[in-house]
Amino acid sequence: MAAIMEAPQNPYLASVWSDLTQRNQHDPLFLQAAHEVMESLEPVLNENPEIARLGVVERLCEPERQVIFRVAWMDDAERVHVNRGYRIGFNSALGPYKGGLRFHPSVTLDTIKFLGFEQIFKNSLTGLPIGGGKGGSDFDPKGKSETEIMRFCQAFMAELFRYLGAMTDVPAGDIGVGGREIGYLFGEYKKLTQRHEMGVLTGKSASLGGSLARKEATGFGTVYFAREMRRAAGEELDSGRAVVSGSGNVALYCIKKLQDLGVTVVACSDSGGTVVDPDGLDFDCLKLLKETERKRLSEYPRFRKRAEFHPGKKPWSVACDYAFPCATQNELDGDDAKQLIANGCKLVAEGANMPCTPEAVSAFKEAGVSFGPAKAVNAGGVAVSALEMRQNASLESWSFNEVDEELQRIMASIHTSCRNFAERYHRPGDYPFGANVAGFVRVAEAVRAYGVT
Ligand SMILES: NC(=O)C1=CN([C@@H]2O[C@H](COP(=O)(O)OP(=O)(O)OC[C@H]3O[C@@H](n4cnc5c(N)ncnc54)[C@H](O)[C@@H]3O)[C@@H](O)[C@H]2O)C=CC1
Ligand SMILES: O=C(O)CCC(=O)C(=O)O
């Protein structure tokens, strides 16, 4: 990775990068995400030297606020555990901090910083009034009882509630946090503040004022974006074979929408391994296993005769036309990319946040594989969260179809912005470049307009 993380050529960006690496020496994920954005900004900065004088890039790279707190909770055997909670308000130029909460044992400040930084540009791309934020904890939900999960959520919110508000900071779900956890968090927030502030969290169940189609939005949006990429190449996304990594919220609804369009999804995974079903995965079976029963994917072959589970394996060696990494960061490396390319993969769209390493992204680019970056591809989730905020503020609830149609419009518009910015700077078809520049230009304009704050 060191060879790829070279300092930018533009003197201003080079000096920002030098400071950034000094100040964030222990945050490799954050530096990876920041470098990826900064290398796209050179032509914009060369054209607009005012951005340097006003320190816009430094301001975007330094979180406005970071909160770290202790979360003490009691398990079912009455033993007390202590976890660490985080919430970063990265940038509020475009609106209240907006971004999910991740509960996973691997979570560190670095994880939340990289995710919060990405969220600034993703949220900007949606065109909606939302700033960038992220939070979470190193709590491991795996193997915990329902009451332990509830007690943890309550303990987490007992500290976090001070920093939230429908116009201040609005969390949602991410890895390990879905509708159930959001319900517990909202219940505790409501109790502590004695306010029914519906717009303070998104991803709520419909019974608590959540938006229909939020659960499906990230996965569906991922496929809508990939469909636009195919259309831009004069093709449709209505046949062929796909592989998807993960089998959580994003992966499941990515699989569902691909199947609805006529694509055969032959493999998906969890942290234990990969399941391959040559006849195409059975969505209902997956949903029952992973969403309802919360079981391991290794149990899937019990329901489908020709399916095989490969413990410890990633799905990237399975031949496919399209690949959708939807699990976690850096899960698809340079060797995986070479294997996908050798097997004829034509398109990769990132449903997860930063799932492809820089080496993998370079390999796709060199091989001419169409590559959709996370901050554009998976923006449908946060976009529908913003629609949930809008519904809550106006005390309305839209039908599933109304939300889904708006999601399709937003994804098409993000796709157009990425292509237009890439063309304007003579990088046609370079989606990562177009996404970074389009996301940056909108937020930079707002940062400038506020003056020095
Ligand atoms: N939930 C949402 O609306 C959004 C999620 N994302 C991103 O999508 C990705 C998946 O998130 P969700 O589906 O919400 O989470 P989830 O908790 O529902 O599912 C996560 C999936 O990833 C797998 N996984 C986690 N760590 C892994 C590892 N180290 N190796 C292999 N598999 C692993 C899990 O087994 C599970 O299948 C994350 O990168 C998240 O940041 C991005 C935008 C919005
Ligand atoms: O819906 C949201 O606010 C957060 C979604 C999210 O965490 C993400 O886009 O990575």
TrEMBL record:
<dbReference type="InterPro" id="IPR046346">
    <property type="entry name" value="Aminoacid_DH-like_N_sf"/>
</dbReference>
<keyword id="KW-0560">Oxidoreductase</keyword>
<dbReference type="InterPro" id="IPR006097">
    <property type="entry name" value="Glu/Leu/Phe/Val/Trp_DH_dimer"/>
</dbReference>
<protein>
    <recommendedName>
        <fullName>Glutamate dehydrogenase</fullName>
    </recommendedName>
</protein>
<dbReference type="InterPro" id="IPR036291">
    <property type="entry name" value="NAD(P)-bd_dom_sf"/>
</dbReference>
<comment type="subunit">
    <text>Homohexamer.</text>
</comment>
<dbReference type="InterPro" id="IPR014362">
    <property type="entry name" value="Glu_DH"/>
</dbReference>
<dbReference type="InterPro" id="IPR006095">
    <property type="entry name" value="Glu/Leu/Phe/Val/Trp_DH"/>
</dbReference>
<dbReference type="InterPro" id="IPR006096">
    <property type="entry name" value="Glu/Leu/Phe/Val/Trp_DH_C"/>
</dbReference>
<dbReference type="Pfam" id="PF00208">
    <property type="entry name" value="ELFV_dehydrog"/>
</dbReference>
<feature type="domain" description="Glutamate/phenylalanine/leucine/valine/L-tryptophan dehydrogenase C-terminal">
    <location>
        <begin position="211"/>
        <end position="451"/>
    </location>
</feature>
<dbReference type="InterPro" id="IPR033524">
    <property type="entry name" value="Glu/Leu/Phe/Val_DH_AS"/>
</dbReference>
<dbReference type="Pfam" id="PF02812">
    <property type="entry name" value="ELFV_dehydrog_N"/>
</dbReference>
<dbReference type="InterPro" id="IPR050724">
    <property type="entry name" value="Glu_Leu_Phe_Val_DH"/>
</dbReference>
<dbReference type="GO" id="GO:0004354">
    <property type="term" value="F:glutamate dehydrogenase (NADP+) activity"/>
</dbReference>
<comment type="similarity">
    <text>Belongs to the Glu/Leu/Phe/Val dehydrogenases family.</text>
</comment>
<dbReference type="InterPro" id="IPR033922">
    <property type="entry name" value="NAD_bind_Glu_DH"/>
</dbReference>
